[in-house]
Specification:
It is a single chain. This protein is an alpha+beta fold. It contains two helices and five strands; from the N terminus they run ββαβββα. It has one domain. β4 and β5 form a beta hairpin. It is globular and about 45 Å long.
Length: about 120
Amino acid sequence: MVDLDSVLFTEYDNARKVPLALVEVARDIGQEKPAGVMQQLAQLANVPAYVALYTPAPEANPANPNWSDIKSFRVKRMWPRPERGWRILTPVQWAQALVQIRGWQLRRFEVRAPANEDYY
């Protein structure tokens, strides 16, 4: 962990423990949020990396009323093809994007049987 005001998540395939993406998450206070170390880690691991800054909603989270719900996310892809600007997404849109990223990555890492598998 580089700084304590953010959290770095690794999205991974639970069955095989294959890392699928890196996401740095922090509360959105209008910051630019440099993520150079995470960007380098993503390049080395050959997985996509994102920064997701969240804005709390005034309502309580329906899953846990001790926490605020999330109003929106400000998201930027850091690697590959880093984005210059931020995208504003609803929580549903960000969740859908994460599912899509997971699907793309799982297809990249599908285990294919070798051609001579019948012999083993």
